[in-house]
Amino acid sequence: MPAPADHPLVRAYLQDRMGFSRADMKAVASGQAVAKSLDTPSGTDMAVVGAVRIEAPVETFLARFKNITTFERADNIRNINKFSVPPKLDDLLTLALDKDDLTALRSCRPRDCDVQLGAANMDRFRTTVEWRAPAATAQANALMRQVIFEQLTAYRERGLAGLDDYADRDQPRSVAAEFARLDPAKEAPVAVPAELARLRDYPGAAVNGAEEFFYWAKVSFGLKPTVRLNHVTMFPRPSATDGVTWVVATNQLYASHYFSTALELRFLIPDEVPAGTGSTAAGAGSTRPPAQGFTLILLAKSRVPGLTGVVGSVIRLVVKSRSRSAMERHLAHSKKLTEQADPAGRQ
Questions:
Q1: Domain residue spans of the chain
Q2: Rounded to 5°, angle at Cα 50 from 48 and 56
Q3: Which long-range contacts (CB under 8 A, 24 or more apart) does 121-129 make?
């Protein structure tokens, strides 16, 4: 069996296209998580790519990733929950805002708000919550849960066009337009036009065999905890000849801070198995191939307004560094959970 680092797609993509060094490639082949920040055309765009070698079948990773509340549980995840099918408002019951966000929401107005929201929802927080009442915090948390649930409902009905424009800055930002500017096809290791069309045109353009779910998380990132609403789609590629058998996409639908849009694409590349190789563990005469691992490549792209100018450039350096180190931690976490014999929350 070829060494994982010698898989033609892995080497061509990471080393030749993304600029991974020989030391990086050796680290990936040995099972270490390696990530690299990519150059982007503007100060608003962020891109990070990383990889890790996992000694387990692809199917094990997919099964455990579906249990997202366990899979994503890490030091920077303060709270997380997967939505029911169909989603229910009670799926957000444990979501609570931090004190700084509660303070900001009392006076939020279009073009002047420290929480990302649409203009109408800023008015709702300012005018419907009884901020001087003892129950103000409970009311504000209940309203935020309602707002996020409404955004999810609108997305499921109308896709990205159903999501509110962010109105916290001078110029409103359309989530659909911001998503289009990501253009992940430029950095993807293989062409995935059907998968990207599904994300762009959801709920249309369905892909046969794809599975999806939604979840929310409260994440420690940057200077403020951020509430994020995500859509996960798991795309099988049974006919692909390029080496990628699955693409797993996590598309951000809402974030209370920093990100106007974000997309993570996971490419699962099983090790090559020489033709005619059988597994003696399966019994004499078996033609089942031996157990194999795979390389997980993760491409994360996002748009983060406010990272231009002198102050913004300093913040950008911090965000880039944290994004790269956060990806390496996440990839190492993914490897550990996938390779465990019986992790907590196993499906």
A1: 97-173
A2: 150
A3: 121/147, 121/164, 122/167, 122/168, 129/105
| Angle ∠(157,162,164) on CA atoms, nearest 5 | 145
Cα distance between residue 269 and residue 278, in whole Å = 20
Q: In what order do the strands lie in the sheet with 294-303?
A: 34-37, 45-54, 294-303, 261-270, 246-255, 224-236, 211-221, 77-82
SS (HEC) of 176-243: HHHHHHHCHHHCCCCCCHHHHHHHHHCCCCCCCCCEEEEEEEEEEECCEEEEEEEEEEEEECCCCCCC
What does the chain come to in residues?
347
Nearest residue to 27 via CA among 51, 1, 55, 7: 51
Whether this prediction's pTM lies above 0.85 is answered by yes
Which position has the token pair 């100060």?
43
Secondary element (H or E) of residue 102 = helix 99-105
Distance CA 319, CA 303 (A): 12
Handedness of CA 248, 254, 257, 260 (dihedral sign): positive
Per-block mean pLDDT, blocks of 10 residues, the chain (347 long): 66 96 95 94 89 96 96 85 98 97 96 96 97 97 98 98 95 95 94 97 95 96 86 96 96 95 97 50 41 90 76 61 86 95 55
Structure tokens at 82: 């997967």
